[in-house]
Amino acid sequence: MQSSSSPALPASLSQPVRRPRVVGWGRLPAWLRFSLLLAGLIGIWQAYVTIKSPDQLLFASPRDVGEAFVNGWRDGALASATWTTVKVLAVGIGIGAGIAVVLTVFATLTKLGDDLLTLLTSILNPLPGVAVLPLALLWFGLNTNALLFVIANATIWPIAINITTGFRTVNPTIVSVGRNIGLSTRRLVTDVLVPAALPHTISGLKTAWAFGWRTIIAAELVFGLSGADGGLGFFINNAKLYLQIPQVFAGLVTIAALGVVFETLFGVIERRTVVRWGMKTVPTTK
Amino acid sequence: MVYAYLCYKSAFSEEGWSRMSSTLSRLRQRRDALPDATLAGTDAVLSVSNVQLGYWTPEGFSLAVEDVSFEVRPRERIIVIGPSGCGKSTLLKAIAGFIAPAGGSIDVAGRRTLSPGPDRAVVFQEFDQLFPWRTVLDNVAYPLRVNRRSRSEAASAARGFLELAGLAHAADRYPHQLSGGMKQRVAIARALALEPAILLMDEPFGSLDALTRARLQGELNGILDRTHTTLLFVTHSIDEALVLGDRVVVLGNAPSTVQELVDVREVGAPDSPAYADMRRRLRRLLAHEGEEVDEDAVFV
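^ inputs. structure came back:
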């Protein structure tokens, strides 16, 4: 393929495409790049502690934090705090999702329900979850129910509004096809509407999880104990009271790590469903 | 059913499908050679009598179809053609059972149509009529399972019809991985697999480029020659009507009535004089009153 076979090509087009570099940052696998970056950041953190040696009652070195993290998980203090938080969060989101589904069905079937959902969502969705905590404490007392109430309130609205949008934006042609091939109303819902609304449902659950996660940590910080053992927010607040700064950091590391785990989980679910089906496009990581 | 599937399969492997569907005129000759007894003297598959259709607007009831009657006989290919807004798509939706006629009646195989059903499988114009969460094979097999066919039976029938549509190689892909033409082929395979009493097609090739459109018209002719499916096809293209149809129902402007029912079986290939004459005649029928008809204008 020499230039003789394509004589009239303009200079700009006939120039060879720049070859990709054989070695370079972008050619490393993603996990290695992010591991290296993380190691670099931890190195800077360690360097700051070594060089400036800040007050140990205010700041911990990565080494101390690592130690506190490992010990916390080994002696069960962090593990039980994490378990408490995740359990309350799961039950809270479960309640929120259940109420959201009921509201969605009502909103899809009747105009009144539709208006009610629109009104409630516009009033209650912008309300930060913890804002209702004082009232929840008054109504339910110092127990898990107050936390569940706060989390349910924080998660109902993003789920309900997303599922409703999902149902409302189902392509009418697909619904016509469903009726044409002889689907009953029940199967039209389960086999056509639900999968067609799945991208919205997943993004609703993602938002609900993010809201709920921030809300429960904040609520635990304010409110502390629920039942016999406290959650992660309580763990951090408690460690701060006793000036165990490495433990405070270890709690934060746990929260961040769990966040990454859940985000990854949602990513996997999306890749196996809506992305695979071409119903949602994701930006490719370079 | 298994026997029918084997017939498809063997017929397909004998001669390449693309070669089969290459020349339109050859296909038309094959079809014209069908004994006339298959077209006449049998009960109508579809009978539309004095159908009136309309829709509600804020101003009141607006009539789209005033009075339309015609019958479709077994194996016949009927094309409904008319100016845009004449209610031809509305008529198809009524036959499919999606909307109820304001007057008159629609009977399929002697039964009044009240709701949508697989005996009137529809191929729509939109490319996104496939279920995106199902593979190509499952898009064809799922409706069969809905209609009480076993999983294995549905899958093997689906494979047969995909092969008929020239898509055996794409069975495991998802719809978003297909081109527009391939999506429409899957939709045709899905509709035919249901073995409908009448296949309803609502401008299925309207969103395709001219080349793909011509190829799919040829393929559809070939497929229907094999399956002997009765067809009702809505289009605004005269050429499409002449290439695919046995008879053409010409609708007027809304509120529409049947202007004329034209037999187009004898028009032959697109380069024959009879074809040109028929084309001119249909153009004149479709022109608005008082409108000049440019006899030589070419539109697809």
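The longest helix of chain B spans residues 210-227. The mean pLDDT of chain B is 84.
thumbs up if we can close this ticket
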